[in-house]
Design brief:
CATH superfamily of the largest domain: Vaccinia Virus protein VP39
Order of helices and strands: HHHHHEEHHHHHHHEHEHEEHEHHEE
Number of helices: 17
Bound molecules: S-adenosylmethionine
Radius of gyration: 22 Å
Distance between the termini: 66 Å
CATH architecture of the largest domain: 3-Layer(aba) Sandwich
Largest sheet: 7 strands, mixed
Number of domains: 2
Length: 338
């Protein structure tokens, strides 16, 4: 017979959607912003966010069990590091990342995971009639904005370290391929006044690039914003190419992206891949969850260390170094043979 501990553990996993939903509800209700520096009662919070106090009490009980908010001895609520990170105005806010991980359209797709696994590919196209990025930009512009902000918030955490790890002496131009809103590029351009850059991403994404890179921004005269499709062409000749979190697709397509850059690059160009390894990180729960989401939505994947290195070599690049950026990310440095 199953022990009580086993039942509890397994049920907690089976009901883990409640955790994701509670985080999303907290953000949507504006709870992280409603709670200030002073310990606050449920009733006052309920008034501030316009919620039913008894139900909000239940939501807060769930959230505190995940260390999102805490309850003091007087039964008042205070912030924790986690709840502070959900505030829009936190310097390292993760609000949009939490929204992106819990977007409403994602929930029904999870129900098809067994089909995805059986078929070895995505189910998004069968459900929505179009591939993910195409559908996202055509039908869900608000969700597309959440995605772009989420990527920027995720990358803000590592942008400084990536810049520290990429010496630019002797390099004049860097191309950030699938660079999102350009947070890494902006960080590098600020740090190296002689450097110029190219930000390549889908047209809607570069249109909302970091304000420093857009026309009128302080770095605008040193950057070219290219709205395009890196599966078709990478129209940028540069000394350094950055591919951060954009090779999470099938192997042939990843090789195609690298080769498109290689076609534009001069011999000896540096090719830098920054990504998560599914088998080397803080724990398998996060990377394997991201990996399954990518399978389901795009037929993509989080590569293993060996898999990503093989892929870079298969494209025809010479790998020189693999280093951790932080507990989540690794940097692969390669060059285009002369
Ligand atoms: C996971 S995000 C990573 C963004 C950024 N490199 C970062 O790490 O913050 C993947 C990026 O690839 C872009 N992308 C997807 N398909 C693309 C394509 N065919 N051509 C250019 N960019 C593409 C997306 O718009 C998105 O910004």
């Amino acid at each position: 017979m199953a022990s009580g501990e086993l039942v509890t553990g397994l049920l907690e996993h089976a009901l883990s959607a409640a955790c994701a939903a509670s985080l999303r509800a907290a953000v949507n209700l504006g709870l992280p912003e409603a709670l200030g520096d002073e310990p606050t009662t449920v009733d006052d919070l309920a008034t501030a966010v316009g919620a039913d106090a008894a139900s909000l009490r239940r939501l807060l009980r769930a959230l505190t069990s995940y260390d999102v908010f805490a309850e003091n001895d007087a039964g008042r609520f205070v912030h924790t590091e986690n709840s502070l990170a959900l505030r829009e105005d936190s310097p390292n806010s993760l609000k949009y990342l939490v929204l992106w991980c819990t977007e409403p359209w994602l929930w029904p797709l999870w129900a098809h995971l067994d089909e995805s696994v059986r078929a070895g590919g995505e189910v998004f196209t069968a459900v929505h009639g179009r591939k993910f990025y195409e559908h996202l930009h055509a039908e869900w512009p608000e969700s597309a904005k959440v995605f772009d902000r989420a990527m920027t918030q995720q990358t803000t955490v590592s942008a400084m370290t990536i810049a520290d790890m990429l010496p630019m002496s002797g390099s004049e131009k860097i191309a950030d391929v699938g660079g999102g809103q350009g947070i890494v590029l902006a960080t590098l351009l600020e740090r190296h006044p002689g450097l110029t850059g190219v930000l390549l991403d889908l047209p809607d994404v570069v249109a909302n690039a970091d304000a420093r890179l857009r026309p009128g921004g302080e770095l605008a005269d040193r950057v070219r914003l290219v709205g395009g499709d890196c599966l078709e062409e990478i129209p940028a000749e540069a000394d350094v190419y950055l591919f951060k979190n954009i090779l999470g697709i099938d192997e042939d397509t990843s090789v195609l992206i690298l080769r498109n850059a290689m076609r534009a690059a001069p011999p000896g160009a540096r090719m830098v891949v920054v990504d998560n390894f599914v088998d080397d990180g803080p724990g398998q729960r996060l990377t394997s969850a991201m990996d399954l989401r990518m399978l389901l939505v795009m037929g993509g994947r989080k590569h293993s260390r060996e898999g990503l290195l093989k892929l870079v070599e298969r494209a025809g690049l010479t790998v020189h170094d693999v280093r951790p950026v932080d507990s989540n990310l690794h940097m692969i440095e390669a060059t285009l043979p002369a």
